[in-house]
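seq:
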Amino acid sequence: MTIACALLQQHIQTLVDDNAQWQKLIADDIVWELTYAPSLGHPARLSGREEAVRHATWFVGAVENFRFFDLAVHAFADPEGAVAEVKGEGLIKTTGRVYRQDYVVFLRAARGKIAFLREYFDPVRAATALDTPILGLK
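struct:
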């Protein structure tokens, strides 16, 4: 198993279930791209530990009984890169709606830490669960 694959598995295992442990996995200069998040009014890019932790803390606080499942991690030829496909589901606390999502997450490791994440998800599912409008739709 490559370092990137191990970090990606740990990212999925700890982001929600043990956020304090997750914070130990990320580099101080992490870049986390959330490609479709702007359609929900969230930033497309989080730069640095403070922004990444703030976003993760918001997510952990917004969901109840959230779990990831059906994780498949794929190594790159470069041991510092990997991609994962994973499903997630939980309850949005403010709306009481079930949130089900399919994610694709790219990870780049540097110096044994998560240096870069790029996360893809369906913003329509998120908007429906959060009862949030999708920005840019008429």
